Amino acid sequence: MNRKEDTPSGTARELAFRLSRIRTSELTIPLEQTQGILETRGARINGSQIHSIRLPGYTISAEINFGMPDQKLTIRHDSGISAEPYVDGALLAIRKVSTLVGLHRGLDTVLDLT
Predict the structure, then answer these.
(1) Rounded Cα–Cα distance for residues 93 and 38 (Å)
(2) Is the peptide bond before 56 cis (omega within 30 degrees of 0)?
(3) Nearest to 11 by CA among 107, 91, 95
(4) What span, in angstroms and rounded, lies between the C-alpha atoms of 76 and 28?
(5) Distance CA 46, CA 15 (A)
(6) For 41, phi and psi rounded to 5 degrees?
(7) Going from the N-terminus, what domains does the chain have, and what CATH number goes with each?
(8) Euclidean distance between CA atoms 89 and 108, whole angstroms
(9) Are strands 61-68 and 48-50 parallel, antiparallel or unpaired?
(10) Best exposed site among 22, 49, 87, 100 by fewest CB in 10 Å?
């Protein structure tokens, strides 16, 4: 929602954290050598460049870009204007909480993926 005050979103911070556990991004030009307005390159969080947009029409969206010479892989998720996409996950976690032991971070740690 464009009225949210946090930036970047919790989802973006979590994705940066998880990606950092695999590998940090490699910048072709180090940030300290960037000419112009440094902030336009995004913020470096957990080794990833994060760009945060809070505008009407960008409700509950996330996009990850992986780039290499002559190629780019983009993963994007867009949902509507409601929080409904989060409801199913919250309900799943509520139903499973009595079977969990210890701290669990992320809905994927609650899912039975086997």
Answers:
(1) 40
(2) no
(3) 107
(4) 23
(5) 9
(6) -85, 0
(7) 1-81 (3.30.360.10), 83-114 (no CATH)
(8) 10
(9) unpaired
(10) 22
Residue 28, by phi and psi: left (phi above 0), alpha (psi -120 to 50) or beta?
alpha
From first CA to last CA, the distance across the chain in angstroms is 35
Amino acid at 102: G
Residue pLDDT tens, the chain, 114 long: 456 778 888 888 888 898 888 988 888 888 888 898 888 888 889 988 888 887 776 677 888 888 888 999 999 988 777 778 788 888 988 998 888 888 888 888 887 665
Would you give the distance in Å from CA 37 to the centre of its chain?
24
Structure tokens at 70: 């002559």
Q: What is the pTM of this model?
A: 0.70
96 CB-contact burial (10 Å; exposed 0-12 / middle 13-18 / buried 19+): middle
